[in-house]
Structure formats: C-alpha cells, structure tokens
Amino acid sequence: MNGMPPSSPPLLQVEGLCKDYPAGASLLGARAVLRAVDGVSFTLARGETLGLVGESGSGKSTVARCVMQLERPTGGRVLLNGRDLVGMSQSALRPLRKVMQIIFQDPYSSLNPRMTVGRFVADPIMIHEGKIPREALMQRVRALFAKVGLDARHLGRYPHEFSGGQRQRVCIARALAMSPQLIVADEPITALDVSIQAQIINLLQQLQDEQGLAYLFISHDLGMVRHICHRVAVMLRGLIVETGPAEAIFHDARHPYTQALLSATLEADPARERSKARLFFDAAQLDGRASGFMKEVTPGHFVREYGHAR
Ligand code: ADP
Ligand code: MG
C-alpha cells in the first residue's frame, strides 16, 4: 500500500500502554495511584478505522492523549510508522505532529471564540510552514473548507455563528490542514444532534476514501461505531477485554461486557428493539480476579480470559 514494501511497520502500533494518575493520599502516606490504562496494545493500518469503545471512565480518552503524546504514558510504546514517540523530546515530536491529529467531542471548546474560523484552520499551516504568501494561504484554507463541506465565504466568521455540526467540520478542516495519516477522534459525534451525527460520519468516511486516512474512533456507544469501523476494541477499566473485526464484534461478541454494550445499542428496527433482551454486566464480578490474557477465538478475534480469584 502507498508504495511501501510489505514489511513496512503498521501506521500505529501501541504496545503495553500504561498510564497512572495520583489518586489522593492513602494509608501511611504511601502514594496511591489509579491505573487508568493498564497495558493496552493494538495496531492500526493505513486507511483503517479502529473503534475504541467502552463506558465512561474506562480509559479511552487517556489512550487518545497518550497516543498523541499530549500526556506522557507511564509505560509502554507508541510507534508511529515504526518510531517510538514515548520519550521523544517535544522538538523531535513536532514534525511528527503533522502525521497525527486529534478531534474532540465538543467542537466549541476546541475553537477559540475570538479567532475567525478561517484563521483557526490556517493556524497549523502557519505553525508548521512559517510565513507563506497570504493569497496562497487563503487558497489552502478555502480548499480545506470545501473539502469538509463548509462555505468558504464564511471563513471570516466566528465560532458562535456556526451550528455544532459545522463547528466539528471546522475542527476536521484544521485537522486535515497538514495532510495527516492518522486522526484520533475522541467521541467526535457524541455532542451532536442525532440528525447531524450521520453527516459527520459520512464526511469522515468520504475523507478516508479520498485520502487513505486512518482513524482511531472513540465512542462510549457501540452503535455509533457500527457503520464506520473495520475493527473494534472494547475497553473496560483500563483493559481491552475484546477486540476483532467489526463483523465478529457485532455478530459474535464473546465477552459479557461487549454483549451488554451491544444490548444497550438501539436497534433501527422497532420490532427487534422491543423483543431484545437487555443484558447487564456488573464489573464488580471481576474484582479480585487476575486480569488474565487475550485468547484468540477466531482469526483476529481476541477475548480476555480471567485468572482465578486472588
Ligand atoms: P473515558 O475517556 O473512557 O471516559 P478517561 O480516560 O477520561 O476515560 O478516564 C479514565 C480514568 O482515569 C477515570 O477514572 C478518570 O477519572 C481518570 N483520569 C483521567 N484523567 C485524569 C487526570 N488528569 N487525573 C486523574 N485522573 C484522571
Ligand atoms: Mg473520554
């Protein structure tokens, strides 16, 4: 693909990623830590979409920030095109930031209310390329607006003049400015009206087809990733508990937590929705058990097997 030799490394390879946060004081003054991400591993190929799914607090955003090196991991490796980003200096990371971009749930908070959206989209170009002629810059910004379905005549407007869906388009345009290979999308449609969600999904898919972009697409809702992901990884309490091709996750889920998430997604068909049994998963049943290992149940489909209670 892309003229690369077949032996070229995957676009993104995450190995044993861990992130600890201080969790207040504990007995005898020892520092307690919360392990928000506990040995997460996955790969992402060029042009592929991996859905990272799990309930709130399972560690998805922490994975996103650690992949982007917005936060430094406690342990593990994050290889982008074969180069480990963990431990790299900010100046060594800077050129690599063109390759990977992030978009967030709330486009409004990503935008600067006092900056025109055109300036906001132009910003990364000015940062990475220094001074370029104004007309050339404007031409690139107009092309980016067109690419995400925004009217280039509106590039002098401010964020509050746009709807939520349009603001997310502005953020996507900025993310595309340096022609990235990877976009980490952390709940990019969660805050949008349901009617707008599909439009943004379609846009992301169209951009992937055109530019071979890869997405790490994060959502707390399996239903949202259904139409966009090639593969899915399900996270629970900082661990991946099931991962595999989307087909396997949606039709042959094995982990009780994945099954519960699936039963919570709305069926498009109201008759099926009514007849569906809602499954619940109580994570407390895993308390005290060793986190075990990932067992391959069908090719590429892995499910966590737990050790005996300690
Ligand atoms: P998700 O995105 O899946 O909702 P997060 O990655 O935001 O989950 O959070 C995972 C866990 O890490 C949660 O228990 C959260 O409270 C904790 N956490 C996240 N960020 C911080 C931080 N900066 N400091 C302390 N704890 C954090
Ligand atoms: Mg999050």
Could you characterize what this model shows?
Helix content is 33%, strand content 26%. The chain is α/β, with parallel strands linked by helices. Strands 6-7-8-3-9-10-12-11 form an eight-stranded mixed beta sheet, with helices on both faces. Strands 2-1-4-5 form a four-stranded antiparallel beta sheet. Helix 4 (117-129) crosses helix 5, helix 4 (117-129) runs parallel beside helix 6 and helix 5 packs across helix 6. The model has no long low-confidence stretch (mean pLDDT 92). The structure holds adenosine-5'-diphosphate and magnesium ion. The site of magnesium ion has 2 residues, from helix 1.
**SSE order in H/E notation?**
EEEHEEHEHHHHEHEHEEHHHEE
Number of helices: 11
Q: Main sheet: which strands, in order across?
A: 6-7-8-3-9-10-12-11
- State the helicity in percent bands: 25-40%
Beta-strand content estimate: 25-35%
Compute the CA-based radius of gyration.
21 Å
Q: What is the total tally of β strands?
A: 12
The poorly predicted ranges are: none
Query: Which structural class fits the helix and strand makeup?
Result: alpha/beta
What small molecules does the structure contain?
adenosine-5'-diphosphate, magnesium ion
Biggest sheet details: 8 strands, mixed
Mean model confidence by pLDDT: 92
